[in-house]
Amino acid sequence: MKLAMIGFGQAGGKIVDKFLEYDDRTGSGIVRSAVAVNTAKADLLGLERVPEENRVLIGQTRVKGHGVGADNELGAEIAEEDIDEVQSVIDNIPVHEIDAFLIIAGLGGGTGSGGSPVLAKHLKRIYTEPVYGLGILPSSDEGGIYTLNAARSFQTFVREVDNLLVFDNDAWRKTGESMESGYEEINDEIVKRFGILFGAGEVTGGSEVAESVVDSSEIVNTLASGGVSTVGYAAEQVTDDSSSGLLSRFKSDGASDSMDAANTTNRITSLVRKAALGRLTLPCEIDGAERALLVLSGPPTQLNRKGIERGRKWLEEQTGSMEVRGGDYPVSDSSYVASVILLSGVHNVPRIKELQQVAIEAQENIDEIRAESEENLEQLVEDDEDELDPLF
Ligand SMILES: Nc1nc2c(ncn2[C@@H]2O[C@H](COP(=O)(O)OP(=O)(O)OP(=O)(O)O)[C@@H](O)[C@H]2O)c(=O)[nH]1
Ligand SMILES: [Mg+2]
């Protein structure tokens, strides 16, 4: 499906940049338009692929391009004050060509955390296209203010969007790695999963398995449950020998053909289980998910309807949902078969219960938290005093 992606804050901008790179590399064509919004000038300058005219610096009179230092109330205020500047860039998006908006942000900081829900609400008022969020939860070692920001932002963001897709840094962080290289890897994992999911709706005709290809409307219908979504992924390398003359001569008898088909089916069903039971972007109980979508990507010869149908049935049993969709995403030149599962409207999520608890407790020591955030802001202004202004 075609998306207008809006990265809000530093993490959001970097991930949109990564999606653009993914599009270039795979030709999947999911990013119809890419926009980055930030209060920090340096973050916008650091982007590589988002077009310069689509980078919006907001809050210049309030924070002078320094960012909001994890003050998400300030982030929300600035987004409200400067929403027209954001809209003037969104005005250039050919909205009739997109299937949905996707607002991407780290929910632990100030700019994206405070601004994303404001932008979601604004877009919902103006457009009829669905507005989805991709919210990144901070890892638990980032500190109190990040957790509190995430707790608050999450509550508002999930209310304003049509569906909030979530990725939890805490479930993905590795110890003994620098933050930056850690984020590089994590961002690759994010883009791989959501790239296959959204790319699935972009396959155009001519394929031998075309009738079981996932369509954009199936993604939209799955997300129409609302609430919170998580994504699972599993992949296996395959050798596509169907074009090899020598091998196919040996395998031309019916017995080995049906062996191949059985292997293909078995591979698919085990990939579906691995994806659903392995590490999800937001770890949770899959039982109770309202809707699900299963996408099998890979060379067409390695995909079959029987495997997908079995995987779909299994997911129905595991989730208890009556709305489990499934289909192919044929990628001829791929050497992997990958299974991506979107679980939409999940309810039993320990991390979210934890965040809700944090939000309640935070009301009690709000002064301390404000002081931490003010210190952050002062530090930023000091650090930034000798910097040059090459773009703005
Ligand atoms: N997955 C991922 N998470 C990131 C990345 N950068 C930051 N984060 C997370 O996102 C949260 C918010 O950080 P930023 O995006 O830098 O915050 P911001 O929206 O720019 O807000 P301010 O810096 O406070 O103005 C952090 O607490 C991290 O958890 C990234 O590259 N990848
Ligand atoms: Mg920042």
From TrEMBL:
Residues 352-383 form a coiled coil. It comes from Halapricum hydrolyticum. Keywords: Cell shape, Coiled coil, Cytoplasm, GTP-binding, Nucleotide-binding. It comes from the Archaea. InterPro entries: CetZ, CetZ_C, FtsZ/CetZ, Tubulin/FtsZ-like_C, Tubulin/FtsZ_GTPase_sf, Tubulin_CS, Tubulin_FtsZ_GTPase. GO terms for biological process: cell division; microtubule-based process; regulation of cell shape. Involved in cell shape control. This is Tubulin-like protein CetZ. GO terms for molecular function: GTP binding; GTPase activity. Residues 2-205 form the Tubulin/FtsZ GTPase domain. Its main location: cytoplasm. The keyword Flavoprotein does not apply. GTP binds at residues 10-14, 110-112, 142, 169, 187. GO terms for cellular component: cell division site; cytoplasm; microtubule.
